[in-house]
Write a structure and sequence with these properties.
The structure holds two protein chains of two kinds.
Chain A (H helix, E strand, L loop, with lengths): L1 H22 L12 E5 L32 H12 L1 H4 L12 H4 L4 E5 L3 E6 L5 E5 L17 E7 L2 E7 L19 E10 L2 E9 L8 E9 L42
Parallel strand pairs in A: 4-5
Antiparallel strand pairs in A: 1-2, 1-9, 2-3, 3-4, 5-6, 6-7, 7-8, 8-9
Chain B lengths: L2 H19 L40 E5 L36 E3 L9 H14 L18 H4 L6 E6 L2 E6 L2 E6 L16 E7 L2 E7 L19 E8 L5 E9 L8 E9 L14 E3 L6 E3 L23
The chains are: A alpha+beta, B alpha+beta.
């Protein structure tokens, strides 16, 4: 009896896990299909490293393997300056493109559209668009080497999408705590389904001008499943001047007070 | 990216090699360029007999460009910007020699503005060349999204299609056309790129456009809508897949005396076209065995200068 129960449990466990692996969405060519709208619930955006609660950040145990980012001494001084001035110097405050990997764990949704040859990532924040090529091509080189989002070339390691990202500028930060990088930034991302609605996203970050050695971060991305959920563009850099457009009807006009169509005069 | 500089560099790099490669089928860049045309043919709505994607949508993926002119002038597209202190050196010729108005209904080619709106448009145009107030600066010059409909007459753009979506990647802005029939966003949410719901009728993508903040204006001549505008777009694709006409009806009782229609012709990039990063926003990747045509990220406000150096970037908050 006990034996058969164990066997049954074992069978259930086996079929269960096989079921989970089969259940993830796939493209026609059998590769995992990451299409969907995703967002992290982690506090990575506020500070990649462990931190207690403070005025501008919820507490978090951090998302970095080994907890501490291995800054070179001079770079650590710069990071401390960034942290001290974070309420003024964070490029996010101007609505600028967040970069890679920050855009992935910024607390607004992004949408993945996927074809066999590429993935298109549209970020709600700034409506930044990033293409991850999965057609076997290499980084272009030449003068195409100064990108806010880097140049992304992906390959498949089983069901894991491995993306090599390079060709960055040095304008973006890694989080709100002033963690930063240079143009030498090189990111290797790994995208892997944990189940049909959950992605484990990890990134190895390498930058010999800022860090003594490569380091790893990892966050979980959750699929938005709310009914009719969609991205809503967030072009906050336009907020300074958007009130000047378009021309408004004169205050005396009958249409001015109404948002309803009022018929032709 | 530094669009023009990159385009010029690429041109210099690509041009000498193109002749040698002309007979090889893998060459993906020729020397053709868009020559803005003074007229264009209508495309009839009807059946789609061209290539389809796996999900059944007509395959219209690729790089597209309008074929008439940029956003200098909405109703006389090849007529330059009225009052331009540095007009084009080439004589414009008569009105009949230039492309017709983008306004194809009413027949006079003019936006049927209410009097206050006509006055506002003329006031913008009068002040465009020497803006003394913020509202006279063309919003695209500040790196604002070009919105609907100006995005179709500002640089080339890419169409990517996915099950349930048609996505437009513009030089300044992105539009996600939802094909799944979900309802529009709540009416109080107004967006630079509006909110789009579409479906295919044969060769025609029909898109219902609401939630437009209408801040982008239509062009340097200052035509505009209000945030109450309801736009019905028909993208009518020719069955050879090489052209489409954008035919859009603008209904906005706040601004116009009657609904009116705009038409913008577009042409798909082929391997005969040069890589110029402008008419078609493409870049060449020769790192592998074969040349690949790709699209680079689009960045504007971060570069700290709106194009034309008119705009002032807002100080960080």
């Amino acid at each position: 009896m006990i034996r058969s129960l164990t066997l049954l449990a074992l069978l259930a466990a086996l079929t269960g896990s096989a079921y989970a692996a089969d259940k993830i969405p796939r493209l026609a060519n059998g590769r995992p299909d990451f299409s969907g709208i995703w967002q992290t619930t982690s506090a990575a955006e506020f500070d990649l490293e462990p931190h207690a609660a403070r005025i501008d950040a919820p507490p978090s145990a951090g998302v970095v393997a080994g907890n501490v980012l291995p800054y070179l001494p001079a770079a650590l001084e710069q990071k401390k300056k960034n942290f001290a001035n974070r309420d003024k110097d964070d490029p996010r405050l101007k609505g600028w493109t967040l970069g890679v990997p920050r855009g992935i764990y910024y607390p607004e949704p992004f949408q993945i559209f996927q074809r066999q040859r590429d993935l298109t990532l549209v970020h709600q924040f700034g409506h930044s668009v990033r293409t991850i090529h999965t057609n076997g091509t290499d980084h272009p080189g030449g003068d195409r080497n100064q990108f806010w989002l880097g140049d992304s070339r992906g390959r498949w390691d089983g069901d894991t999408l491995v993306v090599d990202v390079s060709g960055f500028n040095d304008e973006t930060w890694l989080d709100r705590a002033g963690n930063y990088h240079s143009e030498a930034l090189h990111v290797v991302e790994r995208w892997k389904y944990l189940d049909a609605n959950t992605i484990e996203y990890s990134a190895r970050v390498e930058d010999p001008e800022v860090f003594a050695r490569p380091w790893d971060l990892s966050v979980i991305l959750h699929r938005h499943r709310e009914k009719n959920f969609q991205l809503i563009e967030d072009y906050r850099y336009t907020l300074e001047y958007e009130q000047y457009y378009p021309p408004k009807p004169p205050a005396t006009a009958p249409q001015a007070a109404s948002t309803q169509p009022s018929g032709t005069p | 990216m530094k669009t023009l500089a990159t385009a010029l560099t690429l041109l210099l790099a690509v041009t000498p090699q193109v002749h040698a490669q002309q007979n090889k089928p893998q060459a993906l860049a020729g020397t053709d360029r868009i020559h803005f045309e003074p007229s264009y043919a209508p495309v009839e709505s009807g059946k789609w007999s061209g290539k389809r994607l796996a999900d059944g949508q007509p395959d219209v993926e690729g790089h597209w460009s309008n074929t008439v002119a940029n956003h200098n002038n909405w109703t006389d597209p090849q007529g330059g910007i009225p009052g331009d202190p540095a007009p084009p050196r080439k004589p414009l010729g008569t009105r009949e020699e230039r492309a017709p108005s983008r306004v194809t209904d009413p027949a006079d080619g003019q936006v049927p503005f209410q009097p206050w709106a006509k006055a506002a448009q003329e006031d913008f145009l009068k002040n465009f060349h020497n803006p003394t107030k913020p509202q006279y600066i063309e919003p695209l010059a500040r790196c604002a999204p070009a919105g609907v409909p100006k995005s179709f007459i500002w640089h080339g753009y890419e169409i990517r299609q996915f099950p349930g979506y048609v996505v437009f990647l513009f030089n300044s802005g992105t539009r996600i056309i939802h094909l799944d029939g979900k309802p529009h966003l709540p009416a109080n949410i107004k967006l630079w790129n509006a909110d789009s719901r579409g479906h295919w009728e044969g060769n025609t993508l029909v898109v219902d456009v609401t939630n437009n903040n209408s801040k982008a204006l239509f062009g340097r001549t200052g035509e505009f809508a209000s945030e109450n505008v309801h736009i019905t777009e028909r993208y009518i694709f020719s069955n050879d897949g090489q052209r489409y006409n954008y035919v859009a009806t603008f209904d906005d009782p706040t601004v116009y005396t009657r609904p009116w229609t705009a038409t913008i012709p577009a042409k798909r990039r082929t391997a005969k076209d040069a890589v110029d990063g402008w008419h078609y926003e493409v870049a060449s990747n020769r790192a592998g065995k074969q040349q690949v045509i790709e699209r680079d990220e689009r960045i504007c406000t971060e570069n700290n200068i709106g194009f034309g150096h008119v705009a002032v970037t807002a100080p960080p908050r």
